[in-house]
């Protein structure tokens, strides 16, 4: 299972990539998409929506279940991946690339420090 070293992770199995210094891109991990099975529908927020850290911002529906998505940091949604809304299977085929979900401008970039590094996320998966 792939757990890219350069990303940060949440205990809810979202990944976070810092982009352009002031934005973060968010998606779900390879582990999460594997547990969900074939993703058939994604509900994402509108751009401009304000989120608090830990707020539910959408959901992913698969052939097995429906799972909520949670904001890893508080801030404003500045971009939504429309390609995933049209082709949710991108989450299964490329969870760390084309399957990204939203970009957020964090209110406090220091909040990223509370997220898990790759080694800690791997330990979480091992239980």
Automatic annotation (TrEMBL):
Q: Which residues are annotated with the PTM N6-lipoyllysine? A: 64
Q: How is the cofactor bound?
A: Binds 1 lipoyl cofactor covalently.
List the cofactors. (R)-lipoate
Start and end residues of each Lipoyl-binding domain: 23-105
InterPro entries the UniProt entry points to? 2-oxoA_DH_lipoyl-BS, Biotin_lipoyl, GCV_H, GCV_H/Fam206, GCV_H_sub, Single_hybrid_motif
Q: What does this protein do?
A: The glycine cleavage system catalyzes the degradation of glycine. The H protein shuttles the methylamine group of glycine from the P protein to the T protein.
Q: What is this protein called?
A: Glycine cleavage system H protein
Q: Which organism is it from?
A: Amycolatopsis panacis
Which taxonomic lineage is given here? Bacteria, Bacillati, Actinomycetota, Actinomycetes, Pseudonocardiales
């Amino acid at each position: 299972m792939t757990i890219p070293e350069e990303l940060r992770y949440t205990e809810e199995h979202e990944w976070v990539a810092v982009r352009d210094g002031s934005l973060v891109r968010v998606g779900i991990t390879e582990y999460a998409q594997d547990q969900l099975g074939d993703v058939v529908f994604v509900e994402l927020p509108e751009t401009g929506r304000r989120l608090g850290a830990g707020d539910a911002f959408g959901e992913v529906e698969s052939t097995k279940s429906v799972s909520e998505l949670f904001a890893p940091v508080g801030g404003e949604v500045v971009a939504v991946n429309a390609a995933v809304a049209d082709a949710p299977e991108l989450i299964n085929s490329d969870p760390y690339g084309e399957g990204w979900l939203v970009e957020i401008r964090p209110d406090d970039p220091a909040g990223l420090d509370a997220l898990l590094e790759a080694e800690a996320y791997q330990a979480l998966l091992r239980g």
